[in-house]
UniProtKB/TrEMBL annotation:
Protein name: YchJ-like middle NTF2-like domain-containing protein
Domain of life: Bacteria
InterPro entries found in the cross-reference section: NTF2-like_dom_sf, YchJ-like_M
Every YchJ-like middle NTF2-like domain range: 28-122
Length: 126
């Protein structure tokens, strides 16, 4: 894969690839959000489960193979930096499926567990 699906402008193997592979942790909540988007784009359900907070992680996670993730927009971030323990990222993820194009607009909450960022939960925006 050439460019990373998260559209940060870097190659996959220099951007989200090492995070998905477990070679390094996401340094910020936004970086974790971008890596999770990338996991959806490449179909890596195991990484999604690993990066989910243990309290809110689903037992099963099935990705829709007919859904193609097109691009990610970060709308805003609040906290979630290298020295924070919690943060919020609002994003819009654009996709194409059998029903045409769509978007997921969510404000997600992230917290650290044992020093690593995890996805806690999110609220879908109208």
């Amino acid at each position: 894969m050439d460019m990373c699906p998260c559209r940060r402008g870097e190659r996959f193997d220099e951007c989200c690839g090492p995070i998905l592979a477990g070679e390094r942790d996401a340094p910020t909540a936004e970086a974790l959000m971008r890596s999770r988007y990338t996991a959806f784009a490449v179909g890596d359900a195991e990484y999604l489960k690993r990066s989910w907070h243990p309290r809110t992680r689903p037992r099963e996670l099935t990705l829709d193979p007919g859904q193609r993730w097109l691009f990610l927009e970060i709308v805003r971030t609040e906290r979630g930096g290298p020295f924070d323990d919690a943060g919020t990222v609002e994003f819009v993820a654009h996709y194409r499926s059998g029903g045409g194009r769509g978007e997921l607009h969510e404000t997600s909450r992230f917290v650290r567990v044992d020093g690593a960022w995890t996805y806690l939960d999110g609220a879908i925006e109208a």
